[in-house]
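re: that chain from earlier
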Amino acid sequence: MKRTAALCALALGLVACGDGNPFTEDEAGTTTPPTTTTESAVPETILNDLDRISFNADTNTLTVSGLTQDGVPLVNDYAALATTLAPGYVTFTGQNDPLGRHATAFVASRDGVQAGVVMTGGQFNKFFGGSFFERTSGGYTPPTTPASRFDVTYVGNYAAGLNFPGPDTDLLPITGPLDPNVSRPQQTAYITGLMFVNVDLNDMQVEGEIYNRTAVFNPALTLTPDLPELPDLVLVEGALAGDGTFSGNIEIDASDTNSGVPSNPVGGDVGDFAGVIGGPGGNAIAGGTFIENFTEDLDNEIEYGVFVLDLCDATSADPVCVNALQP
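^ sequence. v structure.
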């Protein structure tokens, strides 16, 4: 089994921490580092504590492999919520018992790609989580660009887990009197937003933006200000490989004037993104993010995110697509 210690974050008096996933172990007990991004491999900074997720959209079922303390077996089935917490994604949750860790997952699948993010609430000074993506069918077919152009745009929703307490709406009930000093599980806070990605198929470059980012916390959590303004983020220095995978860095948007922009200078690296293009005609992308220390309104904040986006075409009504397809 793989497990390594990770940075521990004290968030406004509530401890939360991430765990790394830099090694896997074979049946002989030999540990080896993961490969770099390929069609079915996710960079370790984004995968973190996960091995993989498997989502079946037809049966609306999810299995999660490798997440620490999300259940007794290594591979666990999660239950779908009737109403999603994040537009564009199915929300799944898992908890073994009233004192066991609670995990929240956001997943989506279409056109031969799928991706998901899973995060536990903070308990015992740590949290666990990570993001996973893959091409589920077919090989890489580059998207068709508008006439005389080499660039295409993808657009859709973004969702992420955040290492702060979230709404306690799905926890198993505590039965009987319980010593108040016993460490109880929490649900994770989460972030929703919008996203678009531009891909230059001539220069093999990827860039984009995650915007309208909104965080949902536990109402009992005291924050200053009450509802932090999360800065927009930009995807920069993204490189597209010949197999349709891509990766790059994440920075704070220099045009964002939110008061929550941290002392870390605009343009400073606050995280990583990676993903894969899939589907017939390259009409979808799926990927994940790792982002940290992006606002002065929170302390030691860490988020793992997911995106599954659609290719803009002549039928797209989204204003981003309408403008992206203009000559």
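DSSP finds two helices and 19 strands in the chain.
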